Amino acid sequence: MKNALGNIMQQAQKMQEDLKKAQQELEMMQVTGESGGGLVSIVMTGKREARKVTIDPSLVGEDKDMLEDMVAAAINDAVNKVGKMKKEKMSEITAGLPIPPGFQMPF
Q1: Rg (CA), the chain
Q2: What pTM was estimated for this model as a whole?
Q3: 42-99 residue pLDDT tens
Q4: What Cα–Cα distance (Å) separates residue 85 from each residue in 13, 33, 79, 82, 88?
């Protein structure tokens, strides 16, 4: 029984180290969210920080409301991509572990 508990503790420690490493890797990654067929794009880090906004010159001076909507849509696209990227990375780390459905990792 003691050996089993020791193994569990080792697995938990390794998982904690893997999670920390994965979190650092995710923070360095970048995704690009787009809207309007690429007319508006947002580069965002894994920390959900916007790094760059690109707006096609053809949109400047046109309908302000449409441009604002397209920027918001590009941001939302980037945020969704970051979430998907994090979920995929975490599933790699937790593969085979009996984690309850709906359990959220700490980041």
Answers
A1: 20
A2: 0.62
A3: 999 888 888 889 988 888 876 888 888 889 999 999 999 988 988 888 777 777 666 6
A4: 23, 13, 10, 5, 5
